[in-house]
Amino acid sequence: MATYREINGGSIQNRATNPSNAKTGEVWYNEDTGKLRYGKFTEGTPTSASWATGGNLNTDRGMIAGTGTQTAALAIGSDELTKIVESYNGSSWTEVGDTNNVARSSASTSGTQTSALNFTGYLGPGTVAESWNGSSWTDVAETNTPRYQGGGCGADATSALAFGGYPPTTNTESWNGSSWTEVNNLNSGRYDVSGAGENTAGLAIGGFNTGVTETWNGTSWTEVNDLNTARGAVGRGGTQTSAIAAGGRMPSAPLTSANTELWNGSSWTETADLSVAGRSVGGCGATNAAVLAMGRLPSSAATEEFTGATSGTDSVTATSVETS
User: Fold this and answer.
1) Which domain holds residue 27?
2) Which residues contact 51 (CB under 8 A, 6 or more apart)?
3) 149: exposed, middle or buried (Cβ count in 10 Å: 0-12, 13-18, 19+)
4) Contacts with 121 (C-beta within 8 Å, 6 or more apart), sequence order
């Protein structure tokens, strides 16, 4: 029969306290308790992906341009003639500085709560752009092409990408903090398109009656795998390789969807549905594992927080050796 020394390569050690980095099966004598201890392995418990109810918006609405993270977000504009902007702190919404222009059916960067860009929209020339510094909005250079219900993505107020929109267009423009430059077009022109990522690594998701997905590498667009369920006006968040599409407008009745899909950089996988179905869902999030969905049509103040599935965290704990 093998000995402890033969198995572990050493003898049982005296220790003043339990080690913080105990190994599975390691045995030691705890001088403080006067007992033998050993490292017991415990496998982490997996958790399923899920949506949880967050704090409601102060104003019911859909067609929100969302930006930021799950715990530090902005909800900009709506389907109505409004300039309302609300800020989320992880539990509740607070009204902050209104946009200078009506922000109906606008797009937004995936910027931050304190540095964001809101651009284009249904009213006016459809080219208006505004920059947010954490307390107020400032009009900046307008886009070259008028549009609404287009897609947008970007890191902050100085770096953005605008693409697609109504009238159906493939047009794409890049923002450098001071001006817009037309760059290579989408392969598939559409509106109700959503965006995730940055202006050098972006993702164009779905659209009216389509599930087409395209990736942007800073120079050109490439068609990749479609959404499993074709739809437009989805809530979105994440990056070019870790994104989410939640809810949206379906091609046929029922027009509103609760369907949620996750993007891993190459394909979409269905996951837990939204609790409240809707189209024109506002959305934001740093990755597809921690996302915020706010508002939707029909007009709603609903806010939901998405948490991705986990495999659980394995651990090794100090456990008493039973002695007779």
Assistant:
1) 4-46+312-320
2) 260, 272, 273, 274, 275, 293, 304, 305, 306
3) buried
4) 77, 101, 102, 103, 104, 105, 106, 128, 148
- What whole-number distance in Å separates Cα of residue 106 and Cα of residue 102? 9
Long-range contacts (CB closer than 8 Å, 24 or more residues apart) made by 78-87: 78/103, 78/104, 78/295, 79/104, 79/105, 79/280, 79/297, 79/299, 80/104, 81/123, 84/59, 85/132, 85/137, 86/57, 86/58, 86/59, 87/113
* Statement to judge: residues 139 and 69 lie in one domain: yes
Distance between CA atoms of residues 66 and 247, nearest Å:
14
Nearest to 107, CA basis, from 306, 292, 300, 282:
282
pLDDT digits (tens, 9 = 90+) for 239-249: 999 999 999 99
Q: What is the CATH number of the domain that holds 227?
A: 2.120.10.80
Which backbone phi and psi does 167 adopt, to 5 degrees?
Answer: -55, 150
165 and 299 share one domain = yes
Shared domain for 137 and 269, answered yes or no, is yes
Q: What is the pLDDT of residues 140-184, one digit of tens each?
A: 999 999 999 999 999 999 999 999 999 999 999 999 999 999 999
Strand-by-strand arrangement of the 235-238 sheet: 235-238, 243-249, 256-263, 268-271
pLDDT tens-place string over residues 90-141: 999 999 999 999 877 888 887 899 999 999 988 778 999 999 999 999 999 9
Q: What is the pTM of this model?
A: 0.84
**106: which 2 tokens?**
């606008």
